[in-house]
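Customer ticket, subject: "Can you confirm the structure for N-acetylglucosaminyl-proteoglycan 4-beta-glucuronosyltransferase?"

Message body: Hello, I'm evaluating your service for our small team and ran a test protein. I'd like someone to confirm that this is what the system normally returns, since I don't have a reference to compare against.
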Amino acid sequence: MQAKKRYLTLLSAGTCLALLLYLGGVQLRAARAPRRAAPPGSSRHGPGAERPWPRFPDALRPFAPGPEGGGARVSPRQRRDASAGLYRGRRCRMESCFDFALCQKNGFKVYVYPQQKGEKIAESYQNVLAAIEGSRFYTSDPSQACLFVLSLDTLDRDQLSPQYVHNLRSKVQSLHLWNNGRNHLIFNLYSGTWPDYTEDVGFDIGQAMLAKASISTENFRPNFDVSIPLFSKDHPRTGGEKGFLRFNTIPPLRKYMLVFKGKRYLTGIGSDTRNALYHVHNGEDVVLLTTCKHGKDWQKHKDSRCDRDNAEYEKYDYREMLHNATFCLVPRGRRLGSFRFLEALQAACVPVMLSNGWELPFSEVIDWKQAAVIGDERLLLQIPSTIRSIHQDKILALRQQTQFLWEAYFSSVEKIVLTTLEIIQDRIFKHISRNSLIWNKHPGGLFVLPQYSSYLGDFPYYYANLGLKPLPTFTAVIHAVTPLVSQSQPVLKLLVAVAKSQYCAQIIVLWNCDKPLPAKHRWPATSVPVIVIEGESKVMSSRFLPYDNIVTDAVLSLDEDTVLSTTEVDFAFTVWQSFPERIVGYPARSHFWDNTKERWGYTSKWTNDYSMVLTGAAIYHKYYHYLYTHYLPASLKNMVDQLANCEDILMNFLVSAVTKLPPIKVTQKKQYKETMMGQTSRASRWADPDHFAQRQSCMNTFASWFGYMPLIHSQMRLDPVLFKDQVSILRKKYRDIERL
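Agent reply: Thanks for trying us out. I re-ran your input and got the following:
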């Protein structure tokens, strides 16, 4: 009996082995056999054709982003080949497709092709080109250029769009500087069209870099392309609105936990995620609204939910939802990017990204985990529980970071363009490129110029992060414009008073007078070095040049007729050490909006608030000399020099734009209200009505260039401890400030 069982077992095993060997041999012969081309009109699976192994359904297919409207599945390789016209330079990197030699001689300069006759440019692309031409990178000489930008409008490459430029392929190829796209940058917001919305821009970009919205990680060429946000035609060219987070609410929760309001696509690419949102919507703290009511033929395709969705859609105001939500859902649309992304950032509504495969804007430098929640379209049902598990401290940090990123990089077309250019510049000059801390922390990469220094401790914004303090001494820079004719002149008294400060390291006298330099014996003897520099151009902006002689972090900027005591200088510097990123000083001024004239006004009246501290007696970080010289456009500095006026206002504009903070006024002697800017040649300028009118005009010109009013009002004045207290004067450290 046992022998019979063993026999049957061996017989079964042998039969199975023979069958496996036979089937394996058939498949092996099929694999080795050369494939014959099927005759025209024949079917791959007709009679006698070899049938492939059956395809089993993919359990994750309903959740995975795939081709529109079903049909045959497309492999990643096939999708890449479909856009070969766009990405023939798929393997391009900076090292292989960019000529660094063009940038070595003149630095990072950008040339914009002149506009061709008869070529129409949409307003959005005009704003892009205007941002480049108004930047410090622009050059009108192509021989000096490191990077080239087309004047042909490439933003909208949807063939159904009225902004679509026809025959772009031949127009680009005819450009004599094209050179197969080498060292060229192409801006694009929309590519492809119905029904597949591919990322093909419709012409061969060669070796050009792409600054593209809605670009996929699959087609994105790391460290070569730049992913930019999708922005509307109404996005401001400069300035832009501030973020909506006015104060930090603790706890940071709002009326709604998660919101979305937008179109629902019934068929085609991008429809899966939005069609599933109703599963998560609860009508209370999770409000996800969609409408089918868009497009010409929406009623032909509407489903059983459309009428109900449309009715509920109309009940809610989008702006009210946006401003009262903690998280905002940002699902993909027809393309990977969405306008909802920038709207959420501005509203301090933490974006919850649902767009698998989207290369997020400026992902090369921005750490989006600090400002957004990166979701997965396949795990939509887990989104509510995920965001509810985020701690309130983390929510507050995310909201604050949205505001920083919005104002630093996204609030205007100009900032988007400049961020793109700065990223490319960092790639070219890697040895001085910005690190992640600079890009992701206030004030951001646009205001921290790596050409100044590669060490974070040389900037006034990172002392706390590095555990450092600014150097405990300052350099006084006295701006002299009148000849030295008497030993009793205010400039000499000022020099002696400043030299007696325990914090003074050296004094620089900037001689911008038309008369020759005085002899050395005319200057008083001091315990600190006195360096006299004769201004070459003798213009107002020269007082803010980044002189190598300034070796301290702090600069005490002084007009020649300023009246200050040593005690006041010491106290002001002590205050500045606690606020090294701001202007700290004495003479304060303010701005206001004149409704009758519909323009900004300037006032010198002594009131309870101020927005400027004049640089005639102020302390600030020396980095602002470099920023004033290299960041501001030549047009503003030329205006200041021609008027011999407004340089102090411009410096206040710059510092407030960088810090988003007002300056700090410190206590000054009461009689200075009358004697500050005393009876000298400069006093006559302050009393001149034309001088005051010029300053009014400067305010509006500066505000126009910045795109908004960066000055911020403050009512804070810092006084010494025990100031004006009814105690013995001997108990007060800065006692001289109270003496009349």
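A couple of notes from the result: Residues 492 and 523 are 7 Å apart (CA to CA). The two ends are 126 Å apart (CA to CA). Feel free to reply with more questions.
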